[in-house]
Design goal:
Alpha-D-Glucose-1,6-Bisphosphate, Chain A, domain 4, alpha+beta, 7 strands, 34% helix, 7-stranded antiparallel beta sheet, disordered N terminus, 159 residues
């Protein structure tokens, strides 16, 4: 009986370690300070964040960018569907690193973790974006498509 409990615990640890994640790397045409501001100042974030099929002027952001601070981002798609995501900042290193939890309002139990590292390079900034602890591969794949389109808009915004 004790072995069964140990094996069950091992499976639980293994499945939490094996949850899907994604890493996207982008070279952005701006210094890290400008990219960091685009992520951490609500008035800038609303100018680039969101999918291409979003109703203009529906994007709202409330950001309390400090360790332990919370954020909320919401928008409405062209088809009228409302989306809201939010979480807590776990690590804030100005112009270098942001770590925050991420969960959609519709599935708050599916919290994941985002880490953004910004490094200066010859043409601007190397942004390494890591989103971990997805519920499943479908959630990861959907987020990969979404983040990729957002980062195209981010690059154009900061350039």
């Amino acid at each position: 009986m004790a072995n069964a409990a140990v094996n069950a615990d091992s499976r639980t640890v293994a499945s939490s370690i094996e949850r899907p994640s994604l890493t996207l790397t982008r070279r952005l045409r701006a210094r890290p300070e400008k990219v960091y501001a685009a992520w951490t100042q609500a008035e800038q974030l609303v100018q680039w964040f969101g999918p291409p099929n979003m109703k203009p002027a529906t994007l709202q952001a409330e950001l309390d960018v400090r360790t332990g601070g919370r954020y909320r981002i919401s928008f409405t798609r062209d088809d009228g569907e409302y989306f809201e995501a939010g979480g807590t900042y776990r690590e804030v290193v100005p112009n270098e690193r942001l770590v925050f939890t991420w969960a959609w309002h519709s599935t708050p139990e599916r919290e994941s973790l985002v880490t953004i590292a910004l490094k200066p390079d010859s043409t601007g900034t190397l942004m390494v974006f890591h989103h971990a602890q997805f519920f499943d591969e479908t959630a990861r794949d959907n987020h990969q498509r979404g983040w990729s389109s957002f980062f195209d808009k981010l690059d154009a915004f900061v350039a």
